[in-house]
Amino acid sequence: MTTTAASTVPPSTVQPARRAVGTAGETVLAAVVAAVVAAVGLVAFSVVDWPAFNSSNVTRALTTVGQVVTMALLAVSVWLLRTRRAPALAKALSWVGVSGFVTVTLGMPLAATKLYLHGVSVDQEFRTEFLTRMTDTARLHDMTYADLPSFYPAGWFWVGGRVANLLGMDGWEAFKPYSIASLAVASVIALVLWSRLIRADLAVVVSLAVTAIALAYASPEPYSAVLVVLLPPVLLLAWGGLHRSPGSGGWGAIVGTGAFLGLAATFYTLYLGWAAFAVTLMALVAAGLAWRAHGFAAVRDPLLRLVAAGVIAGLIALVVWTPFLLELRHGSPAGSGTATHYLPEPGSTLPLPMFDASLIGALCMLGTIWLVGRATSSRRAQSLGIGVVAVYLWSLLSMAFTAAGNTLLSFRLEPVLLVLLGAAGVFGFADFSRWIILATSDNPRIKAALVAVGALGAVAFAQSIPHLLAPEIDIAYTDTDGDGVRADKRPPGAASYYADVDKEIAAHRPVPRHDTVVLTADTSFLSFYPYFGFQGLTSHYANPLAQFDQRAAAIGRWAEASGPGDLIRQMDESPWRTPDVFVFRKSDKGYTLRLAQDVYPNDPNVKRYTVTFDKALFDDPRFTTTEVGPFVVVTRTR
């Protein structure tokens, strides 16, 4: 009898490979469903002229209705999975339910504005600018500075920029729908991963809980929120790959862990650092347990797996980090004014949400009790527990780093802590409910009561999300968008003149916008139009290779020039590409720029100051000066 090559492959190799292929296929299909649901929902919301969220309760009411409907779909999905009926339909309903929940929770409150949470104010300004840059070009350019590669990981922004470019949308206009859609896709992918790691019906419940918590506490920063929803199942996956008997497989989990770390490296550096720290802590714990169970030789296996995951992550990270690393050959990062110069009050204390008198506090307390009680008997508790410990260790390290003049920005890990404790709380509720049911001899009324408490708690938290996000939603309605419109129908701000400023620049520089460098303190102008800037919003968001402080000093010297000739000479001798256009504010004393200076360790960590240029500095044929609303546009013509 002839033996085929395929038949010689051990079943232990074939089955994991088939599972991996099946998971990959299901993930792609689920992501497509989520994207379609988000797209259909957002388009449907946009065709109705809704009242502004901050002046009416109509959209809040419709948000609640939409949430209840999507949660009802998830309840049907759970029932089908528990009764083992129509598994394909159950999966489809769970994907539609989770993605629909994300879409209605964020999309309905923002239905009457084109802006996302927090509008284009403060942090959202540079994020919008980055998406505008990636819409204009597929190259990994810095969001602000000409001739520099991106320092911030461009992965989320690059994908969004390519989608916006394909759809013919401006970057600022694509920011809201892309943020919501990407969160919907990430939440459904997390559901697929959960369903491969735990019982399918429980996976739906915990996915909903993690998604709701992430929407409430992480969604204003969408490119990090997509990682937050994935972190709990990824930690469980990582623990499954690291804590195993020698030679018992699990390499697929290591590949998945490395892929996630690589994704984090391309999306958000802080979460890469923390996730790598947590996985390393897991590997050390696994090595210690292996040593105790099998002797010192067994220590090598979890450490080797950790290295393998790191190599995979590093290779993926190079996709976006290579241009910046290559640029380091020609310059060195700034020694101050970095993103780590920030210590708000939440970063100076340990977060203890389990003691908050709220629904999320109660869930976190339940999760804390479950993590401690099941630490020796549940792999889920072990993985989530190590994640929680990693958050607290990172927080302590961040506070200790303040003595060296920096922080580790631990306050941004609060959403991570909440989703970890929230997931644990769901598992704790499931276990405690099972014990109560057993103690009451499987009484159906007790079962019904527990289901009712869980369902009502879920609805109560879900409908509170718009309230928790109310400040961010309000700003989305009060900021002026790229069309010069303020969504609450009140008089728009100075940004309503940006289109005229853009036309004035184009009249004197009929070249693509990315061929022009603009110096302005109204940096939200760069969020709407893909001009390069000479100076960024603050040093904390500036590319370290841009020499923010030196540029600020140069601007100050230009303002003190003795005349137009001296100004032009100084600009021509500058080591950087200098402005082709100045966009000033008018004042009685001249033309002004309101710039920023890093004053860490103070809180606030930014000091604003004004630089004033004498009007006479531009009284020269080599400059063209035009007033546009509150702005003065000065173009260097030659």
Topology (elements, then pairings):
Layout: H1 11-46, H2 58-82, H3 87-107, H4 123-136, H5 155-167, H6 171-197, H7 200-217, H8 222-228, H9 231-242, H10 251-267, H11 269-294, H12 300-327, H13 359-373, H14 379-401, H15 414-439, H16 444-468, H17 470-478, H18 498-508, E1 517-520, H19 525-528, E2 532-533, H20 548-559, H21 564-572, E3 581-587, E4 590-598, E5 606-613, E6 623-628, E7 631-636
Parallel strand pairs: 1-2, 1-3
Antiparallel strand pairs: 3-4, 3-7, 4-5, 6-7
Name some characteristics of this structure.
single chain, 638 residues, alpha/beta, 21 helices, globular
Summarize the structure in words.
The chain is α/β, with parallel strands linked by helices. It contains 21 helices and 7 strands. Strands 1, 2, 3, 4, 5, 6 and 7 form a 7-stranded mixed sheet that branches. Helix 6 (171-197) crosses helix 9 (231-242) and helix 7 packs antiparallel against helix 15 (414-439). The longest helix is centred in the N-terminal third of the chain and has 36 residues, at 11-46.
Structure at a glance:
This protein has helices at 11-46, 58-82, 87-107, 123-136, 155-167, 171-197, 200-217, 222-228, 231-242, 251-267, 269-294, 300-327, 359-373, 379-401, 414-439, 444-468, 470-478, 498-508, 525-528, 548-559, 564-572; strands spanning 517-520, 532-533, 581-587, 590-598, 606-613, 623-628, 631-636.
Average residue pLDDT: 92
Q: How many strand segments?
A: 7
Cα-based radius of gyration, to the nearest Å? 27 Å
Distance between the termini: 85 Å
Structural class: alpha/beta
Strand content: 5-15%
Order of helices and strands: HHHHHHHHHHHHHHHHHHEHEHHEEEEE
Quickly count the helices. Answer: 21
Shape: globular
Q: Which blocks of ≥5 consecutive residues have pLDDT under 50?
A: 1-9
* Helical amount: 55-70%
The biggest sheet, with number of strands, parallel, antiparallel or mixed sense and barrel status, is: 7 strands, mixed
